[in-house]
Design goal:
This protein is mostly helical and 467 residues long. The chain is built from 23 helices and no strands.
Amino acid sequence: MESPNLEFEYGDTDSFTAELSELYSYTEEPEFSLNRDYFEEDFKNHVKGRRWMELSMEEQRAYVMRLLDALEVTDRDKRLKVARAILYLAQGVFDECDTETDVLYWSRHNVFLLYDMGIFTALLELLSMEIDNNQACSSAVRKPAISLADSTELRVLLSIMYLMVETIRVEMEGDSPERKAAREAFKTELGEKDFNNRPVYFTLGGFEELQEMKVRMRELLNLPPLPEDSIKVVRNMRAASPPASAMELIEQQQQQKRGRRSRRPLVKQDSLDTYNERDPFKNDDARDEEDDPEDVDSGIEGEVDPLDRDVIIQPPPPPPPLRPPTERVSFPKGLPWAPKVREKDIEHFLETSRNKFIGFTLGNDIDTLVGLPRPIHESVKTLKQHKYVSIAEVQIKREEELQQCPMTMGEEEVEETPAEILYLGMLPSLSQYVIALLKLLLAAAPTSKAKTDSINILADVLPEEMP
């Protein structure tokens, strides 16, 4: 029985609206009203009798500049109110909009305005201050239970920064040249060496950029082109269930032994069986004839038992397709991707074959086949047809040569790519990142968590005041 396909798109990110919905799912509903109230309170004090949408571009820039100045005050509560007002602008001044389209339009407009006025750099400085705030950490440790109130400032700042990154990252058809230039400038700013908390996907790219990089590097190293785009192949594959465990297979065999004439249990086929077009019922007739020979002698030859007739003649109807037949992708019979064989695999195969048939080996020689039987020749020929040399193997070989002959080979020329810059920025603090991830894993296991541990993964779902 074929598994039904899933409505799932294999990609780097979800749609823009889905990403925003996921962000808002971590926000309590009263906080939306709180952001609006703080914005309207400040906005009405400086702009009388008008709404944000009615202001001109210059008036909006002047008001955002005033908010930027207010972010530098020493009072923590005042800074939080201003940050909530900025968050309301990034959310699209939803109280003044009538439709979801209007909210998305004004959110995009306000985000580019905030970035142009330097809000993101100011938020980054405030985030660094919150991270280095030891007083807040010590006060949270003394509390009996950590709640949402202990991470209010962090959540507000991170929400604004995420909205700005996600909005600027997505390119729209109607974007002006100024917005396109701002996107490239923002991408360059995030890729600077002194910015370690950069969004990786925005600065390094996704699947499409990775595929283009692979093609370009293989051409530079004089390697054969890629046989296919593995990401496109995975996107077009049908949904597959994991293979059955050993206990499930034993139970199925026991059920078949108890009653041969009972209907065979339906087993989900994996994706490879789907491409090979296997029929789970095609071998039932032969199996029943071999296991039950007395059924042939007990009746007239060629006659089918009524119980077996339901299984053989009336198989269950196939499930209706979820998509039109025109949208289905047809693959050739066999694997959906081209098989790849490393040179080490061929060497290992020849080494084993020579030890078996000749009694000695020839090292790394993969061309000499003297003394081996004909089937081994055909196997080696097939393996060489699917030989694949990856970029990593070439780089590893180059690194080994540099280590063996450092004086003659000289130093390796490392290209300053965004990935290399990210690695240089993360390397000094890599141990701290690993320790932080380990603490989160330990906090997820209640049995291994110490009572004095300050990390609580439930802090984002607990109310501010515990009953």
